[in-house]
Amino acid sequence: MKFTAYERTLQGTGASRRLRNAAKVPGIVYGAGTPSMIELDHNALFFALKKEAFHSSILEMELAGKTEKVLLRDFQMHAWKPVVMHVDFQRIDETTKLRKKVPLHFSGEDLSPAVKTDHCLVSHVRTDLEIECLASQLPEFVTIDLSGLVKNQSLHASDLKLPEGIKAVKHGTLNPVIVAVTVPKIEEEAAPAVVVTAPEKGKGAKPKKNEKQNQK
Question: What percent of the chain has pLDDT over 70?
């Protein structure tokens, strides 16, 4: 994806406020040299942030007549307004080794024995994964094949089959669950209706009062 940035000379809270009032977003580009202060068109950036690929793929930034490859590293939103307050990018090249969270896309779920045969429920516990790879190998997303899922199975990060050159980042001994298969609860059968029968005469039945007794 490509986007255009412009050099920013003024810094400080007041300058940033004036930029935002002019529908611009202050930002910075760091890595591989001197950091550059930049500004971007707010609306263009706001809608770009809604695209999955803008967060997880290498971007081409046009700045001062040159095109640089960068990666979105961070952005800040206003506390309650749909306004981008600041954005950070990192310069990279194809030999840069990096860590980045990428989205997980799932396929084959409806073909798995867990769903097709046992009618189980499949929960996507995690929708992204932090990976480590060269910048040239960074994928927009990672597809996870769920066609082999079976009843009561849990798929952990260590179980994922990732493309060559890409590995999941481990944080200590943590091995988070990515997908969990559960058996749906069987609805309780309706309780049989209770039939109430009138007691037989002579067996605890109260005698009916005649009309004369009722008149007394």
Answer: 86
